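Readers of this paper often ask what the protein records in our data store actually look like. Below, we set out a record of this kind in full and without editing:
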Amino acid sequence: MPLIGLGTYQIRDRSTIFAIVDAALESGYRLFDTAQVYGNEEHIGDALRELLPKYNLTRTDIFITSKLSPANHGANKAKKSVEDSLTKLRTDYIDLFLIHWPGVQKISPTDESNRRLRQESWHVLEELRDGQVLKSIGVSNYTIEHLNELLTTAKTTPTVNQCEFHPHYPDFPLVNFCRQHNIHFQAYSSFGSPAFKQNLFHEAIVTEMCAKYDFTAAQILLAWALNQGISVLPRTSNPLHVKENFKATNVTLSPEDIDLLSNVRSDLTKVKYCWNPQRIL
């Protein structure tokens, strides 16, 4: 799995999808991250089918990630929803498929049935992985408690846990837990989510490092994760930013600067800009 991929959260416009996929392929991206709830699997499938030949690429040259909607948890819905994703993505296999959220849509976060239904979902994904429809399976937004629960019942250890991670919310206990259990930790919202990215971009230490390394704030924030072996999924609807973000793979931060960014809020309350799975039983 490539360490950098194109995130597509909140991008549903067909022409925009085609433009950013084109820019991504040209820049060197080979990982494309989507989800059932993003509502763009079909556009991404169409874009890849049309644009791969332009760059002399085939399906096996790229890595596609999608995710199970919270509305599709459970044995009765999960398998059908994966089949729908395959159809929309115009492919007969998905490289990585994740449970997007540990809770179930329209069920109270404290309802015990969340546990039962997400376990059912995982067993369905295991079956599909055994059948090679899904090359690998994992989770997203799982806490240490959710992972411990899963590891007691799963036949297959999740390959990936995809979670919010940035200098304002550096969840190193979760990162370390994943490493101890051979689960790759993948970061989303490296900029603190679209609505709050200026909070990180204007962080004094980030600004200083932009001048020091002559890279943009986005590139510094992505490099902070990449330099720690954490993969990233920068999301943008701007083709120019797609290309700029990929250059983060060329940024090497000093260990001291990585530590500075990791501890930028050491004396402050850490800020979670996205949804919080801690409330899900």
User: Anything to note?
Assistant: The longest helix spans residues 113-130.
